[in-house]
Amino acid sequence: MRIEFTLNSESVSIDTEPQRRLLDILREDFRLISVKEGCGEGECGACIILLDGKAVNSCLIPAGRIKGSEVITLEGYRETERFRILMESFEDAGAVQCGFCTPGIIMTVESLLRENSNPTEEEIKKALSGNLCRCTGYSMIVDGVVRAVKKVKNDGKSI
Amino acid sequence: MKEISKPIRKVDDQDKIEGKVRYIADIEFEGMLFAKTLRSGRPRARIRSIEIPELPDGYFIVDANDIPGKNRVKMVINDHPFFAEGEVNYIGEPILLVVGPKKETIFEIIEKIKIRYEDLNPILTMEDAERKGKTFIDYEFTKGDPDKAFEMAEKVIEDEFRTGYQEHIYLEPQGVVGICEDGKVTIYGAMQCPYYVKGAVMEGLGWDEDRVRVVQTTTGGAFGGKEEYPSIIAGQVVVAALKTGRPVQLIFDRDEDIMVTTKRHPSVTEYRVGLDGNGRITVLDINIKLDGGAYGGLSGVVLQRALFTATGVYNIPNLRVRGSVLKTNKVPSGAFRGFGAPQAIFGIEMLMHHLAEKLGRVPLDFKMDYALKTKDTTSTGGIIRGEVKLPEIIKEVEKMSDYRRKHKESRKFRGIGLSLFLHGCGFTGKGEESIKGKVTLRKKGKDVEILTSSVEMGQGATTTLRKIVSKSLSIPITQVLYDNPDTERVPDSGPTVASRTVMIVGGLLDSAAKELRERWDEGDEIEVSKIYKHPGYIKWDDKLLKGDAYPEYSWGANVVEVEIDPITYEIEVLGIWAVYDIGVAIDERIIQGQIEGGITQGLGYATIEVMDSVDGELVQRTLTDYKIPTSMDFPKIESKLVRNPYKYGPYGAKCAGELPFVGAAPALASAVENALSVPINRIPVTPEYLLEVLSG
After folding, report:
1. Is the whole-model pTM more than 0.90?
2. Which terminus, N or C, of chain A has the lesser number of Cβ atoms within 10 Å?
3. What does the pLDDT average to over A49-55?
């Protein structure tokens, strides 16, 4: 079936099986390699993208479901100012080790910040509970988000 | 860069955060085919026949008949076949690959292949293997006179501890690509040990070293899981590439990765303790049994580390230490962060805890009566040469955690536990001497390139090694280059394992950098190489297992506080405190990452990471069934380092990668014991297990 949707601010159209996973469409048809396959069953969060502003595991989304929707991957999001602030905060917090879970985590954080520009540590931990990381033990990732929120506050900009 | 320990931004962070880094699954090669493995469905059987359907054009079967060289994967015990040959010994053992251009078609072909087995009697438990005397390897050594000491003992106490499987769950599943061009093969993939892969492929093909090239791709976590396993799949894709004439990609999905890759060895450890009239330990008999699974692989070396760590941080005058790797028809066990030490430290720490309880002593005080001191001899008769800073470590951890007060005031369902531990830095026994790691620094204009086979797998090697070279050369870190290892370009510095990268490889780079600094003005292009030599004082006898098992040790103490739900028996961790002596940190933030990641993995091992094998089949086969810690499971870890420079380490650095893992489980289990006043003899400590213990 033909599916039209918005991908990283561009209108795109593909011809594909309605049951095909969004994860495969993004990786194979659009070569968006930031979207990682870590488990293929919605447990690890490595393939999280924004679908109409919400963080979802793209391995669980069938192609039919994205018709007319807006999909944002890290490739689109990394062009924003907020991403730049997050990136620096993640570097300063030591939030990244092997990096395989990082794109999914960044997209989860963006979805959180869209709903709540001033999350508490507990809220950040809760938001990240669907993103598995085997390297860090999570605290340094949470710290990365806290730093970003603070930085924006101090700059007087809203996040 | 003034003080080396001061954190800097990691050199590979930005590309990872931007999602630009290419892991093996992100790399496409022209004309690349995909592969999927057909595996044994039986724990032990003869293969009577394999019925292959008619293959569509462009699809291939690759099996043992396609291996031109030796159909055994070079590890330490070289017994695992690349592809099964007439018989299978565990569920999931690779039999053949189906290779072709379309994944769906490959799956359809796999579905249609029929295998007829003749079942043989499998060995499915450690007890059965022990009864039948099926072991891969057995070791034993003594210190003092254990027999006489037991005769003299006033009291003899016995205890037994068990630990379960643990799966690595590196976020990036295993994956390799094999390419055959102009009579040469190249392997790209996620791995810790490019030269292990090279050696295994050379043997599988029966080819010379100049025809086999291995290139590590950025590796999404490994923790030991990508130490020996990649050698198996590298050999498979290489013969597939040879047969098809096209690049062949083999990438596991998560369920397959959980089911067939190596795991941490389950263990059973028996202790006999002899006490004198004053309640002092005079002798220990320790017997560590590891479940090796169906093939030997690295298990013998894992057992060695377990045995050499068996007495933990304690100095006991008379010892008998023995152990075996049992052979069962289950998925092979292998390398995993700690490499035998976590099982040993869990046992000895819990034993000391039980003895303290029996003797009515505060566990910390009781343990300190036996703590190793500088110049003491180790269990193998080696010498503790570095300054032992355990008293300082303990003082710090007590202060941070308020251990003594909390221990005194512990009440039903709330408790505090403590572990003391050490980790031998670098390879066990003769390892470093036989590997003779080599590194090269290449100056080109103002830049210097690090040429080493040590890989970045998330642990920060690329930043840490660059920091060392930059400081030793007094040049900015931006002028120090490092690329993922390619065996055509880098010497064999040994594998990226055993907490050896900073102390051993970093040490070599430091001395190479210092030489290069002296010779800096000799020209625009200079190469300096260094080969590892053990410090002269180290003596080791591999036959008798006598001498210095390790060149140096790192040390630590953990305290964990828990509260247990009186109805569900779920464990809530209230606090985690950790202090370590790793010599000197090359980068404190990277070390913080190792500490927090290691402890979290260790607490997962101790609590929620349950993996059982029933009839040779793993019960937990997906990430839905096999739980690892999430962001919600544990509180923030408070950690601290005690500085203790090691003379032969770069800037005084010792080892740090595995150490944080090994102390977590006994700290947690002893806290649970303190909260419930019942002995804990097993990890993972699940609510079901607690119910069992509490109901007697």
Report:
1. yes
2. N
3. 98
Residue B77, classified by CB atoms within 10 Å of its CB into exposed (0-12), middle (13-18) or buried (19+), is middle
pLDDT in the model for residue A158:
52
CB-defined contacts A:B, below 8 A: 160
Measured between beta carbons, which residues in chain A are less than 8 angstroms from residue B16?
96, 98-99, 102
B485-532, pLDDT tens digit by residue? 999 999 999 999 999 999 999 999 999 999 999 999 999 999 999 999
For B574, phi then psi, to 5°, come to -95, -30
Which residues 68-87 of chain B have a CB within 8 Å of chain A?
Answer: none
Give whole-number Cα distances, B629 to B51, B91, B361, B624, in Å: 43, 27, 33, 12
Nearest to B19 among A75, A136, A137 (CB): A75
Query: pLDDT by residue (tens digit) across B189-218?
Result: 999 999 999 999 999 999 999 999 999 999
Task: List domains and CATH numbers for chain B.
Answer: 31-121+174-251 (3.90.1170.50), 267-428+546-694 (3.30.365.10), 437-531 (3.30.365.10)
Beta B175-181 vs B248-251: how paired, if at all?
Answer: antiparallel
User: B220, A34: Cβ pair inside 8 Å?
Assistant: no
SS3 (DSSP) at B104: helix
- Residue in B15, B624, B630 closest to A129 by CB: B630
From the list A82, A75, A35, A77, the residue with the least C-alpha distance to A59 is A35
DSSP string, A96-133: -SS-SSHHHHHHHHHHHHHH-SS--HHHHHHHGGGS--
Place of tokens 């198996």: B232
Among residues B237, B222, B199, the alpha carbon closest in space to that of B82 is found at: B237
Band of pLDDT at residue B1, cut at 50, 70 and 90: very low
Domains defined along chain A, listed by start? 2-77 (3.10.20.30), 81-155 (1.10.150.120)
Question: Sign of torsion, CA B41 B47 B48 B49?
Answer: positive
Which chain A residue is nearest to residue B623, measuring alpha carbons? Answer: A43
B422 closest CA partner among B554, B547, B301, B260? B554
Measured between CB atoms, does B637 come within 8 Å of chain A? yes
